[in-house]
Each structure stands twice: as C-alpha cells, then as structure tokens.
C-alpha cells in the first residue's frame, strides 16, 4: 500500500457489515430506515434516466449539474443568509463522505492538526491521517450532575477545546446533529468554537448530514451563519440521508447480474453495443477523412483522435503561440465557428510534452448521428 496508508487499521464497521451478510441479523446498527425513498424523488430519478432528455444520464459539469447547484443555491442561500454563487461556492460530490475526503485532502498538509470531537464518525480520522494530518481529540463530556437522559447532556467543554487550538491547528470538524449521539450543538457551543476558529484562522468543516432530522425541542444552528464564520466554514450535507436513498448504487449490481446471465448470447447488451460502435467508428473515420483530417483508427474505447495538420491554411484560424497550443486553438475554433465540441489532444500531455499532441483533436464517436450533419457543414466551411 502507499506510504500514506501506513498504520491504517481494518474498519470495524466493514468487518461487522461482512458478519451481517453472513448471519443476516435484524439490522439496528446502520442507517437502513424502513421508510422508503419518497415517490417524488424516485419519480424524478425515473424521469432523469428514462425521460426524453438522454443527456441527464451522461457526464455533466464536474462540479455539479447546473440544475442541482441552482436548486442548492436557492435553498441554502436562504438557510445561510448569504447569496450563494451556484457555480463558485457549491461543489457536488459522491456522498457526504466524498465531500469530507475532498475538504480534508484539499486543505490539510502533513503535520497540520485537525481537531476531531469524540465520539466521531471514523472516516474523519482515516482521511486526516491519509492526508498526513494529525488528529487531535476533544471528547464530549457527559454531564455528571444527573443521570444523563438526553444527548444535550453531552457537552463541549470550553477549557478542553481551548487547550487543543495551537498554531498547528488547521481544521476542526463538527458533526451536528451528531452521529451516533443525536446531539444538536447549541448556539453557545458553536459560538465558542467560532471564536477559536477566528482567533487561530482555522477552517471549520461542518458535517450536517442529519440537518433535516432535528426534533422539535432543538434548533439546528448553521456555523456559516455566525458572525465572521462564512469565510471559514465548509458546510456538508447528504442527499442520501436527506431522501433515504443511501443504497442507490444497487441498480448496477442488478444490471450486472442480468448481463452475466446473457453474456455471449445475442441478447448481450455489452456485446451488441461494441458491434454497433464499431460501425460508428468506421463512419466517423470516413467523416474525418472527408474533411481532410487523418483519423487514428482506435482498437477500443469510443474516442477517435484525428490529425488536423493537413488542414493548415484552410482553417481561418490565426494561430498564435501566445494563445496556447495549436490543438487548443483549433478546438476553440470548432466550438465557436462550427458549434462542435471536441477535446484538444495536448491536454493529455505534461507542459513540456504538449507539442507531441498539438496536431490532434479528440472526437467521441458515440454521437455519430449528429456528427454526420456537423461534418458536412464543416466540409463546406473548409472549402
Ligand atoms: N457523516 C456522517 C456523520 C454520517 O453518519 C455519514 C453516513 N453514515 C456520512 C457522513 C456519509 O454520508 P453519505 O452517505 O452521504 O456519504
């Protein structure tokens, strides 16, 4: 394993998950509510995957689909009292777990200290260590003056917190509502943490995965709304927890089972797809040749790289070294003049080797039907 995993321990959670698969107990441990996902959400999924807009099944903006980030911005701008820029201040990740990973990996350098409150969701510690950071623990203290009957009796002790903030502290992770205690951090506890964060310029990662599960007697306070904390807070939520869909990965398993049964029969989806794609590959290669490019016939995948250097003077493109690699400029020309979206090939090379890719652009031939028309237009503009 990589050095950064040295000292990593087996996950007890995963070990018990395996045991559960073997003995099939009544599951009262993990987040498997017996209420189903709400119908308006399953309907939205069904429409997204079977509806007329086939693009919804495909890659989108890497930081989050525009419709999703716009909806998040609308909702959270109100909750946070701050107008959120959907394209700059919101990031969609694979689960809250993915967000924790991104936040810690992006901000923690080896030797940086991360304050983690006990009891904690184990991955805070694992990811911190993977980043080379040092977890520093602050236990919630159980109020000893009476028999504890509420999660509110587990409190954050200001003295304990104060003793852990040092000039090495880079981050504190707060989980409210808390897993597994169910504690909802109070305004005074969060205020106290906020003061330390501001004083030491420390980022506060708020794991608010259970934000929509706060019972009547308590109020969910968002750290980002406290004075001076907007700039220092990363707020994390979870769609899986919000809509009870933590298991939506399952469909792929079912799909694979079906495909395994019909593998090497005429009904095989994967076999049929590759045969249809080979035809598209050959058609795309013809299109590229017809406009004067030289395609590199691929043996696999669904991309085709083409050398456009022979077009030379034909393209009304004022190649200017200052403007970046040739292929990058050609790609932009195709976007603007031909409304054709392609990738420049030099992006697949390091800065020193970019020139090796400069004569090529990269096409995807899955969308061949549309391409045929585009290429006939392109041929016209090149003549
Ligand atoms: N944070 C906490 C406190 C959690 O309990 C969980 C799920 N157990 C997560 C994050 C991860 O959430 P997701 O399923 O969205 O990755």
From TrEMBL:
State if Transmembrane helix is listed as a keyword.
Answer: no
Q: Which SUPFAM superfamilies match?
A: PLP-dependent transferases
Does this entry carry the keyword Transferase?
yes
Q: Which residues form the Aminotransferase class I/classII large domain?
A: 25-252
A single Pfam family, by name? Answer: Aminotran_1_2
Pathway linked to the protein: Amino-acid degradation; L-kynurenine degradation; kynurenate from L-kynurenine: step 1/2
Residues passing through the membrane, by range: none
Which cofactors are named for this entry?
pyridoxal 5'-phosphate
Instruction: Quote the EC number.
Output: 2.6.1.7
Per its UniProt entry, what is the enzyme's top EC class, as one word?
Answer: transferase
Keyword field: Aminotransferase, Pyridoxal phosphate, Transferase
Q: Which PANTHER family match?
A: FI04487P (PTHR43807)
The name of this protein is kynurenine--oxoglutarate transaminase
């Amino acid at each position: 394993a990589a050095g950064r995993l040295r000292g990593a321990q087996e996950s007890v959670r995963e070990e018990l998950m395996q045991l559960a698969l073997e003995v099939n107990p009544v599951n009262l441990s993990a987040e498997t509510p017996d209420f189903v996902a709400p119908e308006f959400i399953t309907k939205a999924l069904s429409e997204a995957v079977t509806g007329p807009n086939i693009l919804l099944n495909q890659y989108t903006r890497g930081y989050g689909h525009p419709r999703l980030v716009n909806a998040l911005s609308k909702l959270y701008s109100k909750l946070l009292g701050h107008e959120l820029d959907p394209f700059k201040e919101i990031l969609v990740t694979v689960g809250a777990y993915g967000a924790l990973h991104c936040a810690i990996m992006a901000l923690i350098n080896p030797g940086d200290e991360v304050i983690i409150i006990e009891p904690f969701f184990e991955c805070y510690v694992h990811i911190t260590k993977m980043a080379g950071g040092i977890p520093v623990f602050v236990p919630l203290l159980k109020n000893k003056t009476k028999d504890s009957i509420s999660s509110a009796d587990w409190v954050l002790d200001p003295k304990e917190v104060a003793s852990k903030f040092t000039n090495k502290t880079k981050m504190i992770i707060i989980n409210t509502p808390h897993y597994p205690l169910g504690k909802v951090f109070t305004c005074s506890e969060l205020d106290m943490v906020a003061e330390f964060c501001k004083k030491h310029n420390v980022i506060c990662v708020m794991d608010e995965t259970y934000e929509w599960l706060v019972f009547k007697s308590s109020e969910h306070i968002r750290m980002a709304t406290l004075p001076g904390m907007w700039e220092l807070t990363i707020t994390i939520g979870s769609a899986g927890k919000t809509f009870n869909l933590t298991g939506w990965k399952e469909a792929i398993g079912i799909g694979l089972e079906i495909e395994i049964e019909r593998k090497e029969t005429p009904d095989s989806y994967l076999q049929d797809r590759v045969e249809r794609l080979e035809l598209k590959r050959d058609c795309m290669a013809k299109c590229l040749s017809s406009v004067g490019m030289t395609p590199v016939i691929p043996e696999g995948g669904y991309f085709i790289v083409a050398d456009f250097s022979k077009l030379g003077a034909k393209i009304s493109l004022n190649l200017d070294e200052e403007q970046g690699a040739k292929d990058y400029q050609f790609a932009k020309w195709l976007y603007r003049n031909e409304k054709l979206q392609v990738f420049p090939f030099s992006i697949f090379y390091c800065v020193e080797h970019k020139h090796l890719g400069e004569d090529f652009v990269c096409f995807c031939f899955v969308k061949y039907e549309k391409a045929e028309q585009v290429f006939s237009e392109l041929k016209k503009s090149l003549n």
